[in-house]
Specification:
With 428 residues, the chain is an alpha+beta fold. The chain contains eight helices and 23 strands. The protein has a seven-stranded mixed sheet with strand order 13-12-11-14-10-15-16, sandwiched between helices. Strands 17-22-21-20-23-18-19 form a seven-stranded mixed sheet, with no helix packed on it. The longest helix is centred in the first third of the chain and has 21 residues. The mean pLDDT is 92. It binds adenosine-5'-triphosphate. Adenosine-5'-triphosphate (ATP) binds next to strand 7 and helix 3. It holds the Pfam family CLP1_P. Required for endonucleolytic cleavage during polyadenylation-dependent pre-mRNA 3'-end formation. It comes from [Myrmecia] bisecta. One of its GO terms (molecular function) is ATP binding.
Length: 428
């Protein structure tokens, strides 16, 4: 049978327009800038360079007009994309205005050897928070800074595996094909997909991350002046709102960007009205943001774990290793009682201590779990020390007393202590 031929289509975009492309899951399309200038979420396209966009939902935006070509290896564009359309209304002018304000603050901080803007992006799910963070980070990089990206969204994990919070300096524009750089991020393992599982532990880890970032900023004037861009989770009601306030304060955010919900903006604006150090700004959500139903969100989590082990392009070779269970020491937080009943007032129930670490028996419950390998040398340090990497449990053989895991690279583990949560994913 003859192979299907590829196709290409050209799009001429007017100034301040964008081409929105939703690549079908599991498919890819190529984009290439043919004339003018354009960017994808703040990362500039290079004239003539052909980029492969896999399963991504993205927009090519132009400030002054451009010509873009979309092409396939085989078959029609419609076979690999859910939708492609041009939009003339975008919030990019407002986003660029925010960047202008952050720039002024960075320059003032630089001159005074002070702290640059610590910007936190908040809003409901599917508001375009991660996208706005990426645009602001890219604009910061293009202006010569290396701002710190902080990710508090444990559900998706834009820096590394889901179930974590972390930070990484952004020194170059975010790679359009690969996403955020994953080298040397500072990562803490929370281990669950929702902060509701153990809110005290979530707060503890945010505090820990914040204090390390403070230390880093204190010792480096350039890092301090460049500031931070902080991405948050989309849970903004009840406990979610309380955790959001905690994150704003722990990370000493002074610019709060609210995307996609007037109610949240109004709540935060009221809450910080008397605080002259915190500016709350309302921003419009882009009409291009693609909503993900819970099933797709779950699938995105699985894909993210898979990417950690196999790479975005599937070009990494994780190692499968089988070890005796006795060689591993796995702990979980939040297990044991806070105090024995006898020590509590009559009638009160012992409450589980959310930060207590307890060793766990290795059995089939751990199958398909993501485990964090800690840099900690003692179990007591497990929550306060960042993680070195992750393992994925593929087989537990209770009869033989062995456990088989996937690790990103061969050789001995960088640490002997492991942390487990409730995060499980299923992939072949
Ligand atoms: N202008 C746009 N055109 C096309 N796709 C877009 C545009 N803006 C954002 N998207 C896509 O919409 C999806 C959701 O956006 P994003 O991840 O930024 O939202 P979020 O608020 O961070 O989501 P979450 O609820 O997971 O926190 C992403 O796949 C993103 O690439």
């Amino acid at each position: 049978m003859a192979e299907a031929e590829g196709c290409s289509r050209s799009y001429s975009l007017k100034a301040e327009h964008e081409l929105r492309v939703e690549v079908t899951d599991g498919r890819h399309v190529y984009i290439s800038l043919r004339e003018g200038q354009a960017e994808v979420f703040g990362s500039e396209l290079i004239l003539g360079e052909k980029l492969e966009m896999r399963s991504q939902k993205f927009a090519v935006y132009t400030w002054h007009g451009c010509r873009i070509e979309l092409s396939t290896d085989a078959g029609a564009l419609e076979d690999v994309t859910d939708v492609v359309y041009e939009a003339d209304e975008t919030p990019m002018v407002a986003y660029s205005g925010v960047h202008g304000v952050l720039e002024e603050r960075r320059h003032s901080a630089n001159q005074a050897s002070g702290q640059g803007p610590r910007t936190i992006v908040v809003g409901p799910v599917d508001a375009g928070k991660s996208t706005l963070c990426r645009i602001l980070l890219n604009y910061g990089v293009r202006s010569g800074w290396a701002p710190t990206m902080v990710d508090l969204d444990i559900g998706q994990g834009s820096i590394t595996c889901p179930g974590t919070i972390g930070a990484t300096p952004i020194e170059a524009q975010v790679d359009i094909e690969e996403g955020l750089p994953v080298e040397v991020p500072l990562v803490y393992f929370y281990g669950h997909a929702s902060p509701a599982e153990n809110p005290e532990m979530y707060k503890f880890l945010v505090d820990r991350l914040a204090s390390l970032l403070d230390k880093r900023a204190q010792s480096n004037a350039a890092v301090r002046a460049a500031g931070m861009v902080i991405n948050t989770m989309g849970w903004i009601d009840g406990l979610g709102y309380t955790l959001l306030l905690h994150s704003i304060e722990a990370l000493k955010a002074d610019v709060v960007l609210v995307v996609g919900q007037d109610k949240l903006w109004s709540q935060l604006d009221k809450h910080y009205r008397t605080n002259k150090d915190i500016q709350v700004v309302k921003l419009t959500k882009s009409g291009g943001v693609v909503a993900r139903p819970p099933a797709l969100r779950k699938q995105a989590r699985v894909n993210r774990v898979k990417e950690y082990f196999y790479g975005v392009r599937g070009d990494l070779s994780p190692q499968s290793q089988t070890v005796n269970m006795s060689e591993l020491r796995v702990y979980r937080a939040g297990g044991g009682p806070r105090a024995p009943s006898s020590a509590l007032p009559i009638g009160s129930e012992p409450v589980a201590d959310p930060l207590r670490l307890a060793p766990i028996n290795i059995n089939s419950d751990l199958l398909h779990s993501v485990l964090a390998v800690s840099h900690a040398t003692e179990p007591e340090q497990l929550l306060s020390v960042n993680v070195a990497g992750f393992l994925f449990v593929t087989t537990v053989d209770v009869d033989r007393g062995t456990l088989t895991y996937l690790a990103p690279c061969p050789g001995p583990l960088p640490g002997k202590l492991l942390l487990a949560g409730s995060l499980k994913v299923f992939f072949e």
